[in-house]
């Protein structure tokens, strides 16, 4: 069939042609937007799940929903080696720019932009032996304010900045939403500051929310920072699609192009993709390209499967495996040999014939790289679905 008309989209964070199986989360977020805009108390939302389940897609969809309601929005992607000060400043600058044309008091906007500029430039003093960061100009053409959000203490500054931003949004009867992807990668001190700022907003009722997405251990990261984070956010675990949602993700876009699948083909595709949205798109795309005509058959899926698996091995699995050091690869192979469920760290050590304490650097390195996570105390698991199967299929 015509590859140009192929509707499937197996890309990182790329919205699929048919977003299925997420109605509950979309309805929840719509309620959050309405309640916050009306001054009702509401918690910010946190999405968690393995890689490839569509967290970023859902986060972007949430942002689109806020924009449609005329909210100000901004988005950042956290990095473990970067403070959130400057990214948050840029994101809130974008949010305020979206609101500014509707605000009746230009002086009020300029006042906030002065605070925002001061916040962006108020980097704390560098640690001994470290080079001071280059002074950053965030492209705000107003003088930096003094005495507000410029102390250099991120917790104090972020709280003051959020309160001031929420005040601007209140004037317009809308809200501001800050979206944070890869939230588990925010440095520990910055997580504490972000939680404290959100806590202040939850008490004051300011119309500013933080919507985060991250790996399954993100709730533990937040809880370790501030104990009240368990009550501060509404957590939604994003998992694989059920059978009906997975079938609809394949059928709906195909039928818009005059193509369909046999029932046996849908059975084979669900077995291969296991309901994970990224895999659904990856197998569907190759099956479309392989099939000579509609309906796409089970035979077409069988022929397509090795090619789809080869593409996943290079782009989805292999690129992550290559980031690991030799010691980290040994650790992951030992995990894979023990199965696909979370495994005790002591069993991994036994598999390698090592003491658990000697493997801490490899384990910690894999967690920092986002390849494994601590499912609970003493247990580790892969952040990527089917990664164990991939490792077992590779030559040693």
UniProtKB/TrEMBL annotation:
A single MF term (Gene Ontology): heme binding
Disordered, as annotated region: 1-24
Keywords for this protein: Heme, Iron, Metal-binding
Sections of the chain in a coiled coil: none
Statement: the UniProt record of this protein carries the keyword Heme: yes
SUPFAM superfamilies: P-loop containing nucleoside triphosphate hydrolases
Transmembrane parts of this sequence: none
Residues of the Cytochrome c domain: 170-336
Presence of the UniProt keyword DNA damage in the record: no
Matching PANTHER family: ATPASE DOMAIN-CONTAINING PROTEIN (PTHR34301:SF8), DNA-BINDING PROTEIN-RELATED (PTHR34301)
Name recorded for this polypeptide: ATPase
Source organism of this protein record: Actinoallomurus iriomotensis
